[in-house]
Structure formats: structure tokens, C-alpha cells
Amino acid sequence: MARGRDLSQQCNSLRQRMATCYLAAVIVALSACGSRMPRVNQTETTLTSSCRAGNSWSQKTTGELRRTVTGTDSLSSRLRAALQLPYVATSPAVEHVLDEAECSRAAAALETRYADGVSRRPLWVFRIGSTRFGVSDGTIGARGNIMVRIFDTSYTYLASLD
């Protein structure tokens, strides 16, 4: 009987480790979907000094974020939890922000995060529901994808998507 319990505990532990690995693989796969665009090859016009105009990358990222925050499956739930994103039932769930004041606040938060004295403007800002922002200056992350930093509405850093 004790042996059966030990085996059951080992199986549960293995299932948890596999679920964690699976979630990590999904995060990598979702972040890679359509987001391989080096900064040097981007062509877009800047609308303001802080906001970056939309392009194909920002459109794909808006769609990826929207699918993540509106999805009702367990995978979407796990991804939201890992990135500290809310479930969003309102429309628009995600939108590209072009408001200069909001982009300036996002830029200040990102520049504080880097703490290297370099301006990160212009950048893309995505409003995610009513409680989160995704911010990207086009920096390429360790996996070769453009990074999106997740902040709350006070611009407190929460997570990174690469």
C-alpha cells in the first residue's frame, strides 16, 4: 500500500514538471509566432516622439495578445498566469496605443527598467484590457524575438514576453 502511494506521488510530481515544461514551450512558441523582425529592417513612420506607428509586427502582436487574454482554454489561462495578464471579456481586448502622454509614461517606465540612460523612444504600447500595458522598443531578446514588457497601469513591471 505504501509503495502504491509513493508511485502515485512520483507520478503527480512528474505530471507537474511536464506541465511546467509544456507551458514554457508554449510561451516560446507563441512569442515566436510572427515576431521575428530585427529593428534594422523595420520601416515605419513615427507618429510622435514617443509612440511608434503600427506595422505588421505590431498588428501580429496585438492579435497574439488578444488571443491570450480572451482565450478560455487552460493553455490561455496558464499563459495569462505566467505573464500576469487578466482575462478580458470586453472589446477591444487589446489595442495599439498612439496617445503621446501614455507612450511617454510607458517610455519612462521602460527607461527606468533598463537604467542605462538611453532613450527608448519611440516605442509600441499595447493597452491590454483596463489593467495592463505591453511595451516594446523593438529590442531583440535572448530567443531572437522582439521583447514585450508587461506593466500594470501604474507602470510597475510584471513580466516579459520574448
Mean pLDDT, all residues = 80
Strand order of the biggest β-sheet: 1-2-3-4-5
What's the story with the biggest beta sheet? 5 strands, antiparallel
Radius of gyration: 18 Å
Q: pLDDT under 50 segments (min length 5)? A: 11-47
Question: How much helical structure, as a percent, in the residues?
Answer: 40-55%
Strand and helix order: HHHEHEEEE
Proportion of residues in extended strands: 5-15%
Number of domains: 1
Structural class: alpha+beta
Notes on the structure:
With 162 residues, the protein is an alpha+beta fold. The chain has one domain (2-161). It is built from four helices and five strands. It has helices spanning 2-32, 56-70, 74-83, 100-114; strands at residues 94-97, 124-128, 132-136, 148-152, 157-161. The protein has a five-stranded antiparallel β-sheet, sandwiched between helices. The longest helix is centred in the N-terminal third of the chain and has 31 residues, at 2-32. The termini are far apart.
Task: Describe the secondary structure blueprint for this structure.
Layout: H1 2-32, H2 56-70, H3 74-83, E1 94-97, H4 100-114, E2 124-128, E3 132-136, E4 148-152, E5 157-161
Antiparallel strand pairs: 1-2, 2-3, 3-4, 4-5
What can be said about this structure in brief?
The protein has 162 residues and is an alpha+beta fold. Helices cover 44% and strands 15% of the residues. A five-stranded antiparallel sheet has the order 1-2-3-4-5, sandwiched between helices.
Index terms:
alpha+beta; 5 strands; 162 residues; globular; 44% helix; 15% strand; 4 helices; five-stranded antiparallel beta sheet
